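Please fill in the sequence for the structure shown.

STRUCTURE ENCODING:
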């Protein structure tokens, strides 16, 4: 049996030279992150998520800093995703009230008056777990109904978590992308309002607001890094499904630092690598990844890029990686059993793949060329996002306790 390399890569040479991206300007006009953050700050229970330093791991891997924005406990929902769905609903409500360019304080958003003016709304979304949970939670918090579509591989635990956040769940016999199409058709027939994290022709405002909502997390991280004396990371590794999170993180830094932004790396599972394939095609267009997208990285199991996210990544992402399952499993175990003195981090399958990929790149001789291309050096400060905690407890135990998805023997490191 052939053992896949821990990382395959496609360089996006275009991103090295492009100085100005119209796509970034359209999605992240100056002040976007401030607006998103001032909304999230008003949500009861909001706290900045922690930025954790893996100081001893960084020393062992011969880089200056590994910083982890830990979203495993965001608003008690175990993932960053709620930042996007809640902000999109907020912007949509403002639009329906004719208040696009005005502030709407959270207390007014929750008021009887606003609810009366809006009438009954049913929010609907397709999800591979976390986005749907965030939309369900935001809808319930504001007193509205939510119907969430999941695909047939969604685990029972994820379905229960969405239901516990107040939504009705419907299972579609297909992939995440089939669920996206089905919820749209049913929403048209039933008058529901779709809150999608992915975009398509004619449907871009809401997914743009979703991406903008994620920028709260980056704005917090920048502030936390500055407090540690780090002006900006030299590198950012970010995991991707449809690419909205990656576009938000990379777009945030492109808006803030222009051509001096951090070197950015987009990481996907090798069985659902639609952005990697789009980069490989090299024609600037998003391309689908075929098959049933069978990966334990459930949040990344997407076969079609979000076009508005892709446009930003095509302009600004430096490198696209695709990784087998064992890379995410290694990341989960390292987060859960850190070196002495480093903080312990609960990281689910989609959350951990970037740490796994970074470690293989820094350690393995087979990946020395990639390490050089990325300019990973002793003075590098790398920012990672632990995008979810233990969102599928049974599977989490299978990996962390029972050692599922072992690292193949030729790629193991022993110290
Ligand atoms: C935990 C987690 N990480 C990362 C992602 C990827 O986000 P995107 O689909 O915007 O690329 C998701 C998406 O659902 C997710 O749930």
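FILLED IN BY: designer on duty
SEQUENCE:
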């Amino acid at each position: 049996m052939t053992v896949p390399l821990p990382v395959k890569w496609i360089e996006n040479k275009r991103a090295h030279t492009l100085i100005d991206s119209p796509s970034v300007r359209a999605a992240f006009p100056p002040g976007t992150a401030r607006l998103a953050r001032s909304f999230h700050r008003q949500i009861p229970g909001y706290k900045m998520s922690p930025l954790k330093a893996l100081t001893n791991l960084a020393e062992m891997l011969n880089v200056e800093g590994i910083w982890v924005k830990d979203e495993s406990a965001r608003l008690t929902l175990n993932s960053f995703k709620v930042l996007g769905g809640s902000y999109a609903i907020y912007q949509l409500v403002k639009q329906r009230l004719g208040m696009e360019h005005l502030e709407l304080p959270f207390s007014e958003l929750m008021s009887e008056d606003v609810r009366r003016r809006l009438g009954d709304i049913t929010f609907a979304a397709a999800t591979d777990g976390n986005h749907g949970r965030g939309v369900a939670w935001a809808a319930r918090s504001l007193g509205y109904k939510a119907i969430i579509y999941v695909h047939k591989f969604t685990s029972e635990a994820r379905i229960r978590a969405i239901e516990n956040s107040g939504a009705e769940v419907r299972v579609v016999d297909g992939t995440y992308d089939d669920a996206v199409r089905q919820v749209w058709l049913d929403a048209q027939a039933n008058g529901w309002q779709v809150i999608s994290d992915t975009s398509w022709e004619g449907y871009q405002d809401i997914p743009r607001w979703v991406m903008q909502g994620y920028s709260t997390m980056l704005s917090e991280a920048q502030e936390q890094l500055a407090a540690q004396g780090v002006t900006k990371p030299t590198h950012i590794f970010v995991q991707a499904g449809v690419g909205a999170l990656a576009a938000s993180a990379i777009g945030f830094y492109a808006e803030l630092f222009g051509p001096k932004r951090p070197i950015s790396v987009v990481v996907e599972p090798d069985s659902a690598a639609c952005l990697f394939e789009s980069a490989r095609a090299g024609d600037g267009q998003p391309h689908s990844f075929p098959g049933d997208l069978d990966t334990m990285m459930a949040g990344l199991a997407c076969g079609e890029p979000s076009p508005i996210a892709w446009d930003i990544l095509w302009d600004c992402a430096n490198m696209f990686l695709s990784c087998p399952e064992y890379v995410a499993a290694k990341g989960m175990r390292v987060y859960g059993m850190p070196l002495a003195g480093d903080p312990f981090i609960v990281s689910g399958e989609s959350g951990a793949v970037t740490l796994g990929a970074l470690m293989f790149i820094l350690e393995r001789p087979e990946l020395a060329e990639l390490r050089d291309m990325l300019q990973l050096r002793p003075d590098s400060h790398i920012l990672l996002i632990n995008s979810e905690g233990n969102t599928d407890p049974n599977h989490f135990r299978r990996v962390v306790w029972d050692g599922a998805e072992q690292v193949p023997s030729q790629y193991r490191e022993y110290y």
